[in-house]
C-alpha cells in the first residue's frame, strides 16, 4: 500500500544519509501522523448526525461564530469516539478572543453567545453516549481579568485569581473550590498553584505526578516541578487525595 511504499523510500533515503541521526525519528512521526489521520478519516463528515444534534450544538444558528464553535465541539466528540486521546478546542473564532483590554463587557457578551450552547451540548452529548465518565473535560485559560478598568472599559491580565472548571472522569461534580477577595483580584480562600492543577489532572488520568517526566533543555522535568511540593486539590476528585511534601 501507499504507506509501505513510502516507508521503503524513507528507509532508503535514511540509509543514504547515516550522519542525519534525526531522520528515523522524523520518518516515524510522519508515519504516525498518517496513521492517525487515516484512522479518523470520516470524523469531519457530519451528514450522519441527527438534526437534533446539529441544532443542539448550534450549527444551524444565524450566529456564524456560534455555529463555527459548535462544529469544533461536535468534531471533538467525534474524535473522542474514534479513540483520540487528547483534543483541544480553542474558541478563538475571531481575532479578538477573550483578550478584553478594551470593551471587556462586550467581549464577554459576544464570547458567551459563541460558547455557552456548544459547551453545554458537548457535555450532555458525552454523558448520553456514556463517554463523559472516561473523558476529562477542562475549561481554562492562562489567566483571568483584573477588576480594575484599563483603557476604554477594558480589563488587564490577572494571574492572581481566576476560575477554571472541570467535568467528567473522576471529577466530583458540583463542588466550588476557593474564592477571591471582595473585588475579585486575588484568590484568598484555598488558593491553588498550577503545579496543584497539574497534579490533579494527572491523578484524574491515572498517572502519578512524580512519575511523568520529560526532557527539557537537557534536564528531566515534571509538570509538578522537580523539588517543589504539590497536592491534588482537595474536593475536586471523587477518590482519595494525594500529596507530595
Automatic annotation (TrEMBL):
Segment forming the signal sequence: none
InterPro entries, alphabetized: Alkaline_phosphatase_core_sf, DUF1501
Pfam name, any one: DUF1501
SUPFAM superfamilies cross-referenced by the UniProt entry: Alkaline phosphatase-like
Protein name: DUF1501 domain-containing protein
Amino acid at each position: 500500500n501507499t504507506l509501505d511504499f513510502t516507508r521503503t523510500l524513507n528507509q532508503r533515503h535514511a540509509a543514504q544519509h547515516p550522519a542525519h541521526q534525526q531522520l528515523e525519528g522524523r520518518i516515524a512521526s510522519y508515519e504516525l501522523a498518517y496513521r492517525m489521520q487515516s484512522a479518523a478519516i470520516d470524523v469531519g463528515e457530519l451528514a450522519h448526525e441527527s438534526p437534533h444534534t446539529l441544532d443542539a450544538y448550534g450549527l444551524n444558528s444565524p450566529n456564524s461564530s456560534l455555529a463555527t464553535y459548535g462544529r469544533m465541539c461536535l468534531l471533538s466528540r467525534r474524535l473522542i469516539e474514534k479513540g483520540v486521546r487528547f483534543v483541544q478546542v480553542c474558541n478563538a473564532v475571531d481575532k479578538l478572543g477573550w483578550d478584553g483590554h478594551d470593551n471587556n463587557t462586550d467581549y464577554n457578551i459576544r464570547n458567551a453567545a459563541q460558547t455557552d450552547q456548544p459547551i453545554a451540548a458537548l457535555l450532555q452529548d458525552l454523558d448520553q453516549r456514556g463517554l463523559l465518565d472516561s473523558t476529562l473535560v477542562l475549561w481554562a485559560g492562562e489567566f483571568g481579568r483584573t477588576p480594575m478598568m484599563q483603557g476604554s472599559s477594558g480589563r488587564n491580565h490577572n494571574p492572581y485569581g481566576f476560575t477554571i472548571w472541570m467535568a467528567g472522569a473522576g471529577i466530583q461534580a458540583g463542588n466550588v473550590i476557593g474564592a477571591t477577595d471582595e473585588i475579585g483580584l486575588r484568590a484568598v480562600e484555598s488558593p491553588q498553584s498550577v503545579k496543584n492543577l497539574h497534579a490533579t489532572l494527572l491523578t484524574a488520568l491515572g498517572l502519578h505526578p512524580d512519575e511523568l517526566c520529560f526532557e527539557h533543555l537537557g534536564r528531566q522535568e515534571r509538570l509538578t516541578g522537580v523539588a517543589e511540593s504539590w497536592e491534588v486539590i482537595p474536593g475536586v476528585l471523587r477518590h482519595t487525595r494525594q500529596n507530595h511534601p
